[in-house]
Amino acid sequence: MDETVVSVIPAGTRHREIRRNNLEVVLRHLSLAGPDSRASIAARAGLTRSTISRLVGELKDLGLVRETGPPQAQGIGRPATMLELDGRHVLAVGAEVNVDYLAVLVTDLAGRKIYEQRKAYDAIADGPDHSITALAGLCREALGTLAGLRGGRPPIVAGLTVAVPGLVDAPARVVTLAPNLRWSGVPVAARLRELLQLGPAPVSVGNDASLAAVAEYRVGSHAGTPDLIYITGEMGIGGGIIVAGRPLRGVRGFGGEVGHMKLDPGGPVCGCGRYGCWEALIGLHALLRAALPGGPGTHGVAAGEPPEAKAAAIARLARAGDARVLTALADIGRWVGIGAANLANVFNPRAIILGGYFTLIADWILPPAAGALAEGVLAPDLGGCSLTTSALGFSAAARGGAIHVADQIIADPAMLDSRSSLPAS
Fold first, then answer.
1. H or E segment to which residue 170 belongs
2. Full-model pTM
3. Sheet harboring 101-107: ordered strands across?
4. Do domains 3-85 and 222-391 have the same CATH topology?
5. Residues in Cβ contact with 125 at an 8 Å cutoff, skipping those fewer than 6 apart
6. Cα 42 → chain centroid
7. What CATH superfamily classification does 90-211+397-418 receive?
8. Which residue from 162, 170, 386, 394 lies 20 to 30 Å from 298 (Cα-Cα)?
9. Could you read off the pLDDT of 239-273 as tens digits, one per residue?
10. Run of H or E residues at 329
11. Could you give the CA distance from residue 92 to residue 139 in angstroms, rounded to a whole number?
12. What is the pLDDT of residues 293-317, one digit of tens each?
């Protein structure tokens, strides 16, 4: 037979694949729709009630689903018992390395946050190896805190995903280039796996803005918005793009580097070495440079503080009426709006969401940003786009990492069988 013909004949689906798919259907339904009954899940999934009951039984045995509350009447017949996503013993770990802080955030399978820690850290001065070692220590501390029984079961580390501000080769789990960290070709995941000894639990690495956008889409104030763009507000500026409910990463996963749109060829130098990038005009460095002539370390803004402390100090000066600071904020806002207009013209999103330090200075930058956005967008009524700030603060990227880990278990709950339990404390 012609090999070309053979290649397009679909292969039969094995029983295990059908079972895995159906288990995912139940878990995904409860994850996205919330508590529901067996009958309702069966109706929505197009499966029989007996099939759903069997699947729910398997998931209850794994501790991933539980019955909750008294039966509820749903029309004629026997009241329905409600089900909800459980998995309190499943630990999904998200972490982040950024220019001046490290972070770790742990959720259970249902997305309930059970641990979070951030600490100021100079990742540039310490370099990649020391920074990864320090992050491993933060993760080890988190897991040690969570080593006791959860929901009557030993906790299982489902995996770890690390967010990094730069280009990431996701399949190789390597940071290809992170200009603001001054990293190049760093095997972050391999080094963390070596340090943490997590057994078969996967260790992944992703771009911070892309992971933050996933978090915004799933649990942020604009959760469920199928077309949105998330803009990080750090020393650097990145973008995570969600189109029709899916991350847009590009052919090699390097998409979303909106901070390196060239907006002013005669503008300041960027961390990437070019001039006039959006990042060089609206990143936290740009604000500190414009607002504080003496640089960090003056006006109560300490050089070694994390970004939220620096932005909070700028906000205090703005509230006190500091003319130089107010002018700098207005200029930052204008450039935010100019760049956002370019994105709105290209992607026509429902929302452009500013995260990170922008959330602390929103009162001063949003008005000029809105004006520049209105001037720059070609479509009437901004094409349906709104410009707003995130409610996730600086935890968005780590939260996105935890969501990525949990999604892998929801997609194939049988993977839990290969994970190692943490010893009880």
1. none
2. 0.90
3. 113-120, 101-107, 90-97, 156-164, 203-207
4. no
5. none
6. 31
7. ATPase, nucleotide binding domain (3.30.420.40)
8. 394
9. 999 999 999 988 888 899 999 999 999 999 998 89
10. helix 323-347
11. 11
12. 766 565 666 666 888 999 999 999 9
